[in-house]
Structures are given as C-alpha cells and as structure tokens.
Amino acid sequence: MSKVSLDSPYMDLDLAHGVEAVVVPDQWAAAGSTIYVEGSGIKVRDSNGKEYLDASSCGLCSVVGYGNREVADAAWEQMMKLNNSRSFGGAANIPKIKLASKLAQVTPGLQRFIFENSGSDAVESTFKIARFYWRQKGLDKYKIIHRDRSYHGSTLATMSACNPGLDNSDFAPFAPGFVSIPTPYCYRCPLDKSYPGCGIACAQALEQAIETEGADTVAAFIGEGVVGSEGFIPPPPEYWPKVRAICTKHNVLMIMDEVITGFGKTGKFWAYQHWNVIPDLMTSSKGISSGYVPMSAVGITEGVYKGMTEKNKPFPHLHTFTGHPVACAVSLKVIEIMERENLVERAATLGAYVGDRLLALKDKSPYVGDVRVLGLMQGIELVADKGSKKRFDPEKRVGIQVSRLAREKGVLYGSVGDDIMLLCPTPTTTMDEMDQILDVVEWSIMQIDRI
Ligand code: PLP
User: Fold this and answer.
1) 39 φ, ψ (degrees, to nearest 5)
2) Which residues contact ligand 1 via a Cβ below 6 A?
3) Which ranges of the chain have pLDDT less than 70?
4) In the CATH scheme, what is the code of domain 17-67+342-450?
5) What tens digit of pLDDT does each residue of 301-325 get?
6) How far away, in angstroms, is 381 Cα from ligand 1 center?
7) Structure pTM?
C-alpha cells in the first residue's frame, strides 16, 4: 500500500449526508466514523494513514484477503463480457450455471442453489422455500423454530428469528409464526445443566417445541452451525446429529445458516461437515465472494427441490440481481483460489495454532473465562471472576475498551455484548502476521485492570 495519508474532507461529508447504523448518534456526531481507504492482504488503511492488521476478516467476509488481483480481474472480465443478465423466468447466465455446479461439488448432500444479494435475503428465502415446499404437499406447515441466541438478519422476517433480546423493539410487530428455543451454550447453559450429563437438553427443547406447537404446523428449524455474531459458540458434538434426527422424525426441515461459518471459516468448507449431518436447506454469504461483491446463496437438497416442484407450480420468488453474473464469476474465482491454496486446510491448522495460544492466555489471565475454538472462529469470553463466571459491570464496556486498545496498536478484532471478543483472521494470514495479531490480542486483554 502507498504511504500517502489523505487529509480527509470526507468526515464532514459523511456526518452531513450519511445515516450511520448501530452507533449512538451523539457519539457519532462527535467522533465520526473511521474511513477505510485501502487494503492489501490482511492489512487495511484508514484516511488518517493508520494501518491495521484485520483479524476480523473484514466483517467475517474475507477468505482470500484484500486487494486480490485475480478476483478483481475475474470481475473485470465478466463485466466486459456480460455485466448483467436476468436469471429467472427461463433466463440464465454461464457464471451462475457454473457456480451452482461447483457448489454442488463442494457441498455434500445439497445439489441445487439459488443466488441472492445478502445473508438476510438468503435466510428469508429459506423460510419461503420451507413454507412453499410444505404447501405443495398440501400441508399448512408454516412455523419456524429458531434459537434465542441467534442472528439471522435485518429484514422483518429474519429479525423475527433473531435473539429476542436484541434491541429491535422499535421495529415491532414482528412476523407471526416464529418460536424461540434455548441455544446450546455450555459455558452459561440457559437450562442450568452441565455437559455431558445434560443429555443435550437444548436439542430436546426442539422436540418439546415441535410437540407443543404441533408438528403439523412447523415448517422448519433454523440454527447457525456455530453461533456467530452472538459469541462464537460451537455446540456440543451431539447437538446437530440429535437435531437432525428430531427434524426427520417430525417432518420438519432443518435449515443451517452458514452465512458466517461457510467457506472454510471453521476448518471445513461448511460447518455442518463437522457433525456428519446434511441440512435440507443451507444459506451462505460473506465468504462466498470473500467480500468483493454483495452476494449470497441458498443450497437445497434434491428431495426438497422435488417437493417444491411436484405440483409444477412456478416458485414465485426473485430478486432483480438473482444469479448476477459478476458476483458468480467472483465467487467461482474465490473457490478456485481456495482450492489451489488449500485455504480450508490452512484455516484448520492456523486455527489450531491460534487456539493453543488463546488457551495459554486463559491460564495466564484472571479474566479469560472461556476460549471457544472451531477453525478460525475464536471466541474469548471475558469475566470479572473466573470461579463464579461473574460478568463485568456493563457500564465499563470492557469488550469495547479491549478492542479499542487493540485498534490503537493496529489490530482489528471485535466484541459482542460487553464481554465476548471475536477473533476470525483470514486463512491467508501469514504466521508472522498471526503472531503480531496474537501479541496485541494478548496485550489488550492483559490491560483489563487498567480499564
Ligand atoms: N445470518 C447470519 C448467521 C449472520 O451472521 C448474518 C449477518 O451477519 C446474516 C444472516 C445476515 O446477513 P446480511 O447482513 O448480509 O444481511
């Protein structure tokens, strides 16, 4: 990256014309946003010339790093060849066809793919597909069961399947037909049980909910393979196989939301491959284009597709940019690079290295209560007291302060709530960069006494 620092006029323009989400308006008016201007590899630079090692994969999207020439060239070539085409109602384009076939090769059990624009679109489509599927079978199964500690998007229907504790109440009323059950979260079990003696009661809660609601009304269950933005929480190993069996027993479709976890983030191409289960429907976004263009996909089993089409009725669902040829060309290139550079395996080995260092930090710091590791998704839960798992005073906003300190030292990693740090480096991170990141992560957490 060049060393030229921009003396930025953009802050004032942004404050005058932007609408910044998820920030306290007063604080934004006083401080503005960090304006990013350039990226290369895992480094990104802001408009003041400050450079960061991005250990958050740019919002959990990046798989091949910033500024990848091959990906940019693929987009350019496709733009010059065919920049847009309709991809529904009997029209298709070649990158879309190639991408669906490629995904079918790397996605065990799922053969068909619809392409969308964002994670929320993809999740919402799975709800529509599930309802449509059952209605083609003459069944009025429409309810969606979800988990209470989850994030599935920002449209009204996807918010209806999110953690009810999120600050969404000003958007109410939400969509009807959504039912919440407890999330597998062994460190703070919502059912007050301990693994493994619990018998995976959180999975049993699904069966209870199906029976209470009536299996003849329940269309689908949705969950993230690993809880993502709500804390990087992998489930106990028995959880998904049990959920799969319960869904099959009660004729409920199982939707796996892989918006964060897909494209190698957990050390397998898809998170569900850790548990030898096959979802009926699956979402993907973020890594699908490595963040180069907005894009998402829904994967569908052949069985569900047969059910959707058995009455020969058109599936009335489209977006203008469904199967956009440039987005599909980008995604094909990302997968090609992942395969050539063994990035899924790299995520597993790099993740194991990071995990070991974080576990050592857990022994060293009185404030690291839990370290959760699956591939490159690494959650660090901070506590005021390890023995009692007492949380920090929320007023101290410890997580935000820790990430601010790391940021000042040039490392980007985020926090959720007041106390969970989320680390998710890109698999292209070199060992040297990884050590620099981990040194700063460790340093930032060791400063907690001074916050
Ligand atoms: N599903 C999961 C698991 C997510 O983490 C997100 C976003 O972070 C979404 C869906 C929604 O994706 P988007 O923000 O692209 O609409």
Assistant:
1) -145, 150
2) 118-120, 123, 151-154, 224, 228-229, 257, 259-260, 285
3) 1-8
4) 3.90.1150.10
5) 999 999 999 999 999 999 999 999 9
6) 22
7) 0.97
